[in-house]
Amino acid sequence: MSFPLHRYRRLRRSESLRTMVRETSLAPSDFIAPLFVVPGKGVRQGVASMPGVDRTSADLTGKDAKALADLGVLSVILFGIPDHKDAKGTSSADPEGPVCRAVRAIKAESPKTVVMTDICLCEYTDHGHCGVIKGDTVDNDPTLAILAAEAVAHAKAGADVVAPSDMMDGRVGAIRAALDKEGFADVALLSYAAKYASGFYGPFREAAESTPSFGDRRAYQMDPGNVREAVKEVLSDVAEGADMVMVKPALSYMDVIRAAKEVTNVPLACYNVSGEYAMVKAAAANGWIDGQRVTLEILTSFKRAGADLILTYHAKEASQWIG
């Protein structure tokens, strides 16, 4: 009986052998943990559609960031839910708003944590859209100045990285210019460069109270059928000054992650979004899948596709599992 010269199973016989030759691996430092911040003190509110995810006041956000850092998760990204909302999202630049308070709390509690802040208006507008409304759509150019003011406020609070997620054209350049003008040339910019108009965002909108009161976001977020357009968006944002770029969502867009990886040499992130997280949690709770195994498989696939960094609500538990 003839056997092939190469027996690929030779290197699969034991966990030690598999680990030795593994091409893609995960580490806690690969993860960026999204954190939701609310006003007040001593506040912790669970998010029903996202088991294990809480909305916390700034003081507890600082403690949660420290716990993550102790596990090796050295980066967090903050989303704020303010007391006051208006048509222009002006509270987004409030130096005493929940995000700015949380930045300062994290820096006091866990100085080594890299603090990123989401730059968008959807959590701050009373209509839930990502910018100033004109007629029945978002008016791109007037929105840029408000986004820039939000980024500067976060930088003044001590943010290391600002991350615009609004998908307005030209916002990277506007934010970079405003940061430089205000003396924050060292604050980095992570652009949500290819953010799709996705159905996977539902649980996030519950957590962030950012569901649009009318219409949807398809006029400014990307169409799910497009990948060449994503490449244009990525290259444009890098040209405008983005230090890092992101693809969002991740699970159904790994071809986009790969395409982005191939056209740029800046660090590439992907966002393992709320709907992706909720699906895994629901299936695991029903006993339909092994939650730990599937979670780690999904996260590994993002890195295999080309992501350098993964924004994920699994950051804490995944770090505990991979130890």
Task: Give the helix/strand layout.
Layout: H1 15-21, E1 31-38, E2 44-46, E3 54-57, H2 58-70, E4 75-80, H3 98-109, E5 114-119, E6 133-134, E7 137-138, H4 140-157, E8 161-164, H5 171-181, E9 188-195, H6 202-208, H7 228-240, E10 244-248, H8 254-263, E11 268-272, H9 274-285, H10 291-305, E12 309-312, H11 315-322
Parallel strand pairs: 1-3, 1-4, 1-12, 4-5, 5-8, 8-9, 9-10, 10-11, 11-12
Antiparallel strand pairs: 2-3, 6-7
Polypeptide structure, described:
It is a single chain. The protein has helices at residues 15-21, 58-70, 98-109, 140-157, 171-181, 202-208, 228-240, 254-263, 274-285, 291-305, 315-322; strands at 31-38, 44-46, 54-57, 75-80, 114-119, 133-134, 137-138, 161-164, 188-195, 244-248, 268-272, 309-312. With 323 residues, the chain is an alpha/beta fold. It has a single domain, classed as TIM Barrel, CATH 3.20.20.70. The strands form two sheets. It has an eight-stranded parallel barrel, surrounded by eight helices. The longest helix has 18 residues, at 140-157.
